Amino acid sequence: MDAVEHSPNTPLEYQSETGRLNILGFWIFLGAEIALFSTLFATYFVLDGRTAGGPVPAELFEVKGVLIETFLLLTSSFTCGLAIHYMRRHSLKGLFLWIGITLALGLSFLGFEIYEFVHYIHEGAALTTSAYWSAFFVLTGTHGAHVAMGIAWIALILIQLKQRGLTPDTSRKVFISSLYWHFLDVVWIFIFTAVYLLGMVM
Amino acid sequence: MKRIKSMLAFVMFMSVFVLGGCSNLTVLDPKGPVAEQQANLILFSIGLMLFIVVVVFVLFTLILVKYRERKSGPDYEPPDIEGSTFLEIIWTVIPIIILIALAIPTVKTIYALEEPPEATAHKEPVVIHATSVDWKWVFSYPEEDIETVNYIHIPEDRPILFKLASADSMGSFWIPSLGGQEYTMAGMMTELYLQADEPGEYRGRNSNFTGEGFADQVFTVTAETEEDYAEWVEEAQEAPELTQEKYNELMLKGHADEMTFSSTHLEWVNHAMDAEYATKVRNGLPLDEDNSHGSHEDHEDSEDEDHDSHKGHGDHDDHSKSEDKDTHSESH
Amino acid sequence: MKWDEFFVTGDPLIYGADVSIALTLIGVIFVLTYFKKWKWLWTEWLTTVDHKKLGIMYVMAAVMMLFRGGVDALLMRAQLTVPDAGFLDSTHYNEIFTTHGTIMIIFMAMPFLIGLMNVVIPLQIGARDVAYPFLNAVSFWTFFMGAMLFNISFVIGGSPSAGWTSYVPLAGLELSPSVGQNYYLLGLQIAGIGTLLTGINFLVTILKMRAPGMKLMQMPIFTWSSLITSVIIVFAFPVLTVALALMTFDRLFGSHFFTLMDGGMPMLWANLFWIWGHPEVYIVILPAFGMFSEIISTFARKTLFGYKAMVYSMVVIAGLSFLVWVHHFFTMGAGGAVNSFFSITTMLIAVPTGVKIFNWLFTLYKGRIKFTTAMLWSLAFIPNFVIGGVTGVMLAMAAADYQYHNTYFLVAHFHYVLISGTVYACFAGLHFWYPKMFNHRLNEKLGKWTFWIFVAGFNLCFFPMYFLGLAGMPRRVYTYGAADGWMSLNVLATMGGVLMGIGFLILVYNIYFSFRYSPRETTGDPWDGRTLEWATAAPVPFYNFAHVPEVKGHDAYWIAKKEGRAKEKKPYKPIHMPSNSGVPVIMSTFFFISGFGMVFSWHWMSIAGLIGVLATMVIRSFDYDKGFYVSVEEIEKHEQTTE
Predict the structure, then answer these.
(1) What is the pLDDT of residues C321-365, one digit of tens each?
(2) Angle, CA of B187, B188 and B193, to the nearest 5°
(3) What distance in Å separates the CA atoms of residue B44 and residue C598, rounded to the nearest whole number?
């Protein structure tokens, strides 16, 4: 079934049956991820305000750090899109460049997030402090862990690209990992508004 | 066919046994207006449901008998019937009608049960705070300033407003003869109106699993005439006052005998507002405000006394051991 | 930690189990070594990605779990037969009902159904395998390792005892300090990974891999039910994943999601649990509906009555399944509006379910009903499920539920729907598709013995429980007093339980007996079947179909037989097949190690296990094995031997 007819315009990652199946499967996986993050958001809202006399978010949240994180991640989503653009034009060099930038942005996002967490813990707001902070750390931490996983995964794919060049297989992997990366960006937008903006206003 | 017949005979025999051997269906033998509304609703629904069951069972039996494979007609080739919109509509609409017939009284009763019973709504209800603690029941009468453990007295023909909370695990407060149950939760208040129509002793219990001592987390309800009730109240008010030390002993896991006090724990804690109290007592953490003396030292001696108050629950020794293991700190 | 805290000690029942587990293990190792079967085990089973073999392993594991859960059930019945019995103490009883519930739902019902789905779905839609054979193996092994992790709690560390619902605060660290609850959390978490992957896998398989010509509305009804089930899995299981993770954080890392201290909210757990838990009920009932539909249609020799209505009703049920979770705690005092809303949504489920019941009845109408064992199970389902269903409607009436909740009335209801729905379906499906799995039928005579004994036992066991509930007997009590007056009904229930146990033993004997004496299949179509799985040869070749069948309507094989196309010969083409892989079983073993470490808070071990998991993933990522082609000559050779 691998050699199904396809028009020359079909992107590389869609050219094989495996490619098409895997991409559909990954979309469904993202559906499950949406259910997962929705549950975490619901938990966060239920526990919002239950700080048990401990620190409250409005005291600790800082606009600057969060804006930097947001900027980094949004930009990385954009550069990730550029990488796919170059992949479609069969430019391995452009692909490497933009994915490299994406990873660098992702890493610095993680760096800022870890710095932010350490800061909160320093101020006496940790996972164990109160229900609110438990929900905060698990929601943002799950997102952060996803980002870390994504970085490691994309790094592995880069090695494979280096070894094999652009094939239907490697391009499929790049494309799927880019879907994942955009998804994390979308989740972050929700975290940014629902957790940080609301947390600072309330 | 023989098998089916013997099966049917067996089922008939069974139901006679079941119904005969069980004249004691508490839920269908209500002793108050709340339980009565529920029993009526249940009987009404059983009636409608039996109708459905009969229709299906009759159709089922007829079809199986008529269309079973027979040796005599091996050439019979069944027609392929895709379906029938008319029939589909019928068996969609009729169930919907039946459900509407069920839903209306259900919703009415749901709302009715949130209020005191209609006939006695003009009477001032007796307010009783019922608190479940592993594995006992603590009752406070704030107006009368009485606290009891594992038993209550109530006047007949007067609504009782139970304000429910839990000191620890989630329980469910249930007196089947008087009406349905409601959960008790730490840090939350739930309310339940019940009423007894006639004097008598009723059994109440926790029906929501709370661990080791769950099966014995029971209490008795004595419904009596207004005069007898007033007399009991007076008598109870003679009892010693409840001290916080004594109360903190009750917070430890274990059973307790029936007790009576002439003051209530609501003076220093309402578990519907404070989810942490029992946990703090058990772990020797400081309690809020100035009356924090009932903590660690008391915890130590209280264990022996607690021993005495047990209703001889078989593996009590394990309790006190696990008590010690429990003592890990939640503080940071 | 001392060894006597590590191993569960002090109970003769558990020592007995220790010995029998050890003996079984030694026996298995001895047999494998003596007959030099280790290599065979590895290449044919442990590394297989063949959906049929994975299906068989699922079913075998599920039957084992049915045994374990059944023993639990009989122990409970033994304890409850007479008042004030001292056979089990409270703690032990609590552990047993907890493991009974968890094992039966998570490790018996679901894997049994998923196993049958694995065997049947690719065959029914005319596919060579599922969309992701490798992931399918990962699904099985994570389920299996999760189940094993949960089960060893019994002898190592102690079983969970807070009920399969694990309500907090009871299941929290404060009130359940033993490691048992950790086993529950991690065992379910690891098995849950497998279930989620299965959901994704079957969704894509059914959407994308159908034989040419098979439109959505021409899919066999079991395939439809599996598709809808997969959708429910994909959206419901992440909720469980999160709920379990949050409780794990509470217990192991001191967070405060569900604690009494520092603002935690215990009722959040109940909500999350049932937002997953109610759809879960439909995950185990919809495939059952699908199987009954197939079997009833086959043995009535008629096409399914109202096929479209059957499909739509399942879609409606799936949608409603996410909107009814509050009916599990009407007694929480949420207020009239909430309880009324959820009462009505719950009752609404009865409408599509009723439609299905009548469609089954009218499939039988004017049919030529053949009482095979599979058919008997499917027929017995109808009256028994109706009893379970109407009592379900009664429970849905919140005002009345205040009196039923937490009682044996509820216990009777959910056993009526789960046993006469899911368990009957598992048995029916097992008998029906057994020839596809093992190339011989199960003995019909023994099968009917199992059927009559089990069904009689089931009704004897659970029908009295409705009355016990109305008599005020709460569930989960380990004993009761003579004054309660519950004994006579409990005696009946225990007798019924014993009958069910006997029925199960006859089934196990039947498996052995049929393996030895049943004639081997020659045609591949022993029941005069209607759907494509019966078009495959006997035994089913590993590539399933020598040429991909063409579909001209639902009941595709029936139509082909009528048109005389069933045995058509066409030139063969090479077939692409996936390669075996040892990665899934190794990865899942690392999951097990990691989970075990977490249960005991041995963080070095859990981290080592996780590193192992990641390493196997990396290995997989670098693995560009694209499978192999079966050449035309090979297919020809194979097809000749199987005909």
Answers:
(1) 999 999 999 999 888 999 999 999 999 999 999 999 999 999 999
(2) 145
(3) 52
Whether C126 and C211 have beta carbons less than 8 Å apart is answered as yes
Question: What CA–CA distances, in Å, run from C561 to C220, C335, C385, C525, C557?
Answer: 16, 59, 34, 11, 6
| DSSP E strand boundaries for C464-504 | none
**Record: contact A134-C621, CB cut-off 8 A:** no
Distance of residue B189 Cα from the nearest chain A Cα, in angstroms: 18
**C contact residues 130-189, partner B, Cβ 8 Å cutoff:** 161-163, 167, 169-170, 173-177
Rounded to 5°, angle at Cα C506 from C503 and C507: 90
CA dihedral A15, A18, A21, A26 (to 10 degrees): -100
- List pLDDT tens digits, range B174-202: 999 999 999 999 999 999 999 999 999 99
Q: Which residues in chain A have their CB less than 8 angstroms from residue C618's CB?
A: 156
Confidence band of B317 (pLDDT split at 50, 70, 90): very low
How many other C-beta atoms lie within 10 A of the C-beta of residue B323? 16
B125-292: CATH topology is Immunoglobulin-like (2.60.40)
Looking at residue A91, what DSSP letter applies? -
Q: What number of other Cβ atoms are within 10 A of residue B313's Cβ? A: 16
Closest approach of chain A CAs to the CA of B200, in angstroms? 44
Window from A103-107, B107-111, B298-302, C18-22 with minimum mean pLDDT: B298-302
Number of Cβ within a 10 Å radius of residue C444:
17
Nearest CA in chain C to B111: C336
- Count how many pairs of residues, chain A against chain B, have C-beta atoms within 8 Å: 3
Q: Domains in chain A, start-ordered, CATH in brackets?
A: 12-201 (1.20.120.80)
Domain assignments of chain B as residue spans, ordered by start: 2-67+81-112, 125-292
Please spell the DSSP secondary structure of B123-166, one letter per residue: SPPEEEEEEEETTEEEEEETTTTEEEESEEEEETTS-EEEEEEE
Could you write out the DSSP letters of every residue in B165-200? EESSS-EEEEETTTEEEEEE-TT--EEEEE--SS-E
Q: Which chains touch C (3 or more CB pairs under 8 A)?
A: A, B
pLDDT tens profile C144-164: 999 999 999 988 999 999 999
Distance, in Å, from the CA atom of C273 to the CA atom of C242, rounded to the nearest integer, reads 10
Report CB contact under 8 Å: A127, C253: yes
C601 touches chain B (CB under 8 A): no
Sign of torsion over alpha carbons C373, C374, C379, C384: positive
Say if the Cβ atoms of B18 and C456 lie within 8 Å: no
| DSSP label at residue C573 | -
Look at residue C537 and give its three-state secondary structure: coil
Residues of B in contact with C303 (CB under 8 A): 80-82
For chain B, say whether C241 makes contact (Cβ under 8 Å): no
Helix (H, G, I), strand (E, B) or coil at B66: helix
CA distance C78 to C75: 5
Reference B137, options B124, B120, B150, B126; nearest CA is: B150
Q: Is C332 close to B185, i.e. CB distance below 8 A?
A: yes
Both tokens of residue C570? 């066409």
ipTM: 0.94
Tokens standing for residue C129: 């395998």
Query: Cβ separation of A50 and C131 shorter than 8 Å?
Result: no
Whether the Cβ atoms of residue C410 and residue B27 lie closer than 8 Å to each other: no
Q: How far apart are CA C137 and CA C116, in angstroms?
A: 15
Alpha-carbon gap, residue C222 to C311, rounded angstroms:
10
**DSSP assignment of B70-95:** -SS-TT---------HHHHHHHHHHH
User: Exposed (0-12), middle (13-18) or buried (19+): which is C427, by Cβ within 10 Å?
Assistant: buried
CB-based contact (8 Å) between C9 and chain B? Answer: no
